[in-house]
Amino acid sequence: MAGEPMSYAIKECYYTLQGEGAQAGRAAVFLRFAGCNLWSGREIDREEAICRFCDTDFVGTDGPGGGRFVAEELAAHVASFWPGGGSPYVVATGGEPLLQLDSPLIDALHDEGFEIGVETNGTIAAPAGLDWICVSPKSTAELVQTEGDELKLVFPQSDAPPDQFSGLAFDHFFLQPMDGPYQSIAIATTVDYCRANPLWRLSLQTHKLIGIP
Ligand SMILES: C[S@@+](CC[C@H](N)C(=O)[O-])C[C@H]1O[C@@H](n2cnc3c(N)ncnc32)[C@H](O)[C@@H]1O
Ligand SMILES: Nc1nc2[nH]cc(C(=O)O)c2c(=O)[nH]1
Ligand code: SF4
Ligand SMILES: [Mg+2]
Question: Which residue numbers delimit the Radical SAM core domain (predicted)?
């Protein structure tokens, strides 16, 4: 019996500007995968989760542009958001995209002409063929993906001091102030840290500042 082709659970898919890190300002299709290995996504589980500060709803497939797709279908869906021109760019995020993003989908997105960026928590090894890897380590979760293009640490996290990551093989090191009830303290702490440790640059979530998704 032939197996069913892999189907991908997508929370939402939309066209915006990358708001964070070294690619901030670049037009991109955001492909948000459903599900994460560090939190169920239910508020009732947040305080017991490994990752407790998540700013994202990644549960289900009911968002704008969401649904279940096979690889070629999903690549065509992503391509339908691109206006033409420039360098087509898709950012795979979530939830944790590396629970689902695999080589058939990478190949299908490349065949549609896209460069592929990924936003990952670093607990799962990245498949070959990704064009931009952003790793964002999470508190006590074991870091498996120890190389990539940018390391973007949400700051401060008591169990994840920046020093722990500064020797890893990344081209860019960012601290991103933790959004939430203590955001102003987090911003001040991040500015102080970057001033004292110039390896690290400030990453603001610019999409939130200007009210785009
Ligand atoms: C929602 S996560 C999805 C991708 C992946 N699971 C990860 O954690 O990297 C996307 C980015 O938002 C960051 N992020 C999540 N919650 C945040 C918060 N409260 N403040 C600042 N950045 C946050 C993550 O660290 C990650 O860099
Ligand atoms: N505009 C925009 N930029 C982003 N960069 C990383 C995001 C994410 O949630 O992964 C994100 C997001 O949610 N929106
Ligand atoms: S690992 Fe990423 S998606 Fe999962 S809960 Fe943390 S920030 Fe959210
Ligand atoms: Mg986001």
Answer: 51-143
Cβ-contact 52, 160 below 8 angstroms: no
7 is in an annotated binding site: no
pLDDT tens, N- to C-terminus, the chain (213 residues) = 567 778 999 999 999 999 999 999 999 999 999 999 999 999 999 999 999 999 999 999 999 999 999 999 999 999 999 999 999 999 999 999 999 999 999 999 999 999 999 999 999 999 999 999 999 999 999 999 999 999 999 999 999 999 999 999 999 999 999 999 999 999 999 999 999 999 999 999 999 999 999
Asked whether the CA dihedral 47, 39, 17, 62 is positive or negative, the reply is: negative
- The rounded Å distance from CA 69 to ligand 2 centre is 21
Return all residues near 52 (Cβ < 8 A) that are at least 6 apart: 39, 46, 139
Q: Is 54 marked as a binding-site residue?
A: yes
- State yes or no: ipTM above 0.90: yes
> Is the CB of residue 126 below 6 angstroms from any atom belonging to ligand 1?
no
* This model's pTM is above 0.95: yes
Catalytic residue among 12, 20, 33, 51: 51
